[in-house]
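Write out the bound-state structure for adenosine-5'-triphosphate.
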Amino acid sequence: MKAIAFINQKGGVGKSTTTLHTASYLVKKGYKVLTIDLDPQGNLSKAFGINTDGVPTLKEVLLGEVPVNQAIYSSADFGYVIPSDIELGQAEKTISGNFGAEGLLALALEPIIEQVPLDYILIDCPPAFNIFTYNALLVATDVVIPCKAEQWSLDGAEQFFAIQELVKKRFKRNINVAGIVVNQFQSNITTQKMFYDILKQTAEKRNVPFIAQPIRLSTDVNTAIGMCKSVFD
Ligand SMILES: Nc1ncnc2c1ncn2[C@@H]1O[C@H](COP(=O)(O)OP(=O)(O)OP(=O)(O)O)[C@@H](O)[C@H]1O
Ligand SMILES: [Mg+2]
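---
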């Protein structure tokens, strides 16, 4: 089983969109997929069509209030999901105050990983290196770094490599970078082509895969998300 986290500290680079489309694609291929929304914005949960009002979410799981299986929902297009909403953000201080707070998700997932033959866990992270992203890092076997072709996405990617080193030193965990992927690409803009090349060189320098095919900017993405669908549908 692979657990892939989508990480970039820079906001709006396509973490949630890439997570959603990866889930949709893998489910269509027949894989058993569990997606975890680690972002209190809850964008992904809403896009998956999950209404979190009054039901257990990731917050209750991390606080140890419900077992993980009570916060897993099923969606025909996207597979299984543990959703989040704004309440996760409100509980951040309490969650962070727990002993071993960065390991809470890994601990909570243990029974599911043992009982359910999942092929993939996908984790949508918030735009910050905070307790939620740290929890993702202690579950992830792999990381995808979505970037826009711009400086601040590049900075976000570089910050990830620093964190990857810390995880290695402090937790003895080797997280594989599955790839840097350029999103919302506009090939007719010169600076975007320049940053595409810089991101490619960064990947080469770090010896990590660079996904050569960029994802182009397309209004279809927002149309699909508004309909709780992926662009494939
Ligand atoms: N290829 C694309 N073409 C057009 N719009 C896109 C594309 N990818 C993402 N978007 C849109 O760009 C916005 C940001 O994308 P998304 O929410 O996936 O980024 P994010 O990195 O998860 O953001 P955050 O850091 O806030 O969680 C969204 O409105 C999304 O619908
Ligand atoms: Mg997001």
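---
The chain has ten helices and eight strands.
The pocket of magnesium ion (ligand 2) is lined by residues 15-16, 39, 43, 124 (CB under 6 Å).
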